[in-house]
Amino acid sequence: MLLRTHRWLRVGLLACTLVCLAPVALAQGAGRAAIRPSLVRLAPGETQQFRAVIEPQWLHEAYVADEVSWAVNGVPGGNDTLGTIDGEGMYRAPRQAPRPCEVHLCATVDRAENPRLWATALIGAGAPAYELAGQWQEPADGSGRLKDPLDIAVDRSGNLLISDGGHSKVLRFTPGGEALGSVGEPGGNTPGHFGELRNVDVSPDGNIVACDMRTGPPRIQVFDHDGAFLHAFAQKGIGPGQIMQPQGVAFSPAGRIYAADSDNMQVNLYENDGTFIESWRRNGVRPGDLNEPYGVIVDANGDVFVPNYYGPCQKFTANGEFVLAFGHPDPPDGLVAITGICGDQWGNVYLAVRDTAGLVQNSATPEPRPARIMKFNNSGSLVTSFSLWEDERGENRMAVDANGRLYVLFKRVDALGVAIFEER
């Protein structure tokens, strides 16, 4: 009798807890949202219902969001070329398949923690494909304008920034390869100089941020759009805010700086003035752990994507909470290494990957190792994949411009440079 009484007492206490806590959960806001479905293939003229779903919260079930704004490729309500979508999320594909066949369904849920949602619709029988629209290159012996290109970004004018380890400068080019000068100087320990330059990216306000591996000065340096030195931060080390081996920088919509550090197995977060905020240091191979983080990007919601070199790529909230993983290892012919990442305005994530045959065996005299690009949407669904040339010898860092053109650094047997891909 005593045991039964205790059982009912526990049930009563749990019920009371649920009743008391449920209003608190509701008061915390809408939580995170997701779009359903995230990837569909439709025939011309076919319809598909999309919905924005508020995901389950503590002691509260999921539900369909109301007050959602819908657009197609950013056009409110869509149009005849892209297809139309009504206020309830009902999409009707265009009568003729567009080129490219990939269409982005955009939902805005202002109350959600991640208010911008993107789904992918593939219209017609064809698959999304990228074609080589152009390239420019230099001799592989380093006698040209490029010696050792390591990273690439697009500045606010649409020109390319390439961090070149051989020159120890950030080089600026037009998309077609016309030289426009450089940022920073080689050698020395004074601000504005580089020793072992690695990464480059551009902040929301147009500043150029470059990462260096040289011991001495801070490892992250900031320049204005014209190349004037502004400030530096992040010393070499393993302490708070310090970096050993930078593998990429990215920016939140508000300008906060994320830096991936493959040696410390962490991602550091700084204010835009370089003030250290926190580190995500989670060594391991379980979901949410970091296993040689090899790049970082941030989408329009402030969600952060970090690929582990050995896979997968992981999505986190701005505060480091694990959301999902995609791009899982699939040996021997599938992904086993991720060597680059970039993202576009539709929340898509591009990964440069290699299979077992493409792994580095001898870094002193590297053999050709095939590579390819995999494109995922913001929910981690694979959109398309395409191969690069078979005599690739370097890691493929990438950047996407406002028009969706994909710029890929390459190092082939006899040449190095930039390849330009366009979706068709």
| Total of helices | 1
**Quick check: average pLDDT?**
90
Secondary structure: helix percent:
under 10%
The global form is globular
Described by strand count, sense and barrel closure, the largest sheet is: 5 strands, mixed
- CA gyration radius, whole angstroms: 23 Å
Q: Helices and strands: which structural class?
A: mainly beta
CATH superfamily of the largest domain: TolB, C-terminal domain
Give unreliable regions as ranges. 1-28
How far apart are the termini? 74 Å
Strand sequence of the main sheet, in spatial order?
A: 2-12-11-6-7
How many strand units? 38
CATH architecture of the largest domain: 6 Propeller
Classified by CATH, the class of the largest domain is Mainly Beta
Please state roughly what percent of the residues sit in beta strands, choosing from under 5%, 5-15%, 15-25%, 25-35%, 35-45% or over 45%.
Answer: 35-45%
Tell me the number of structural domains. 2
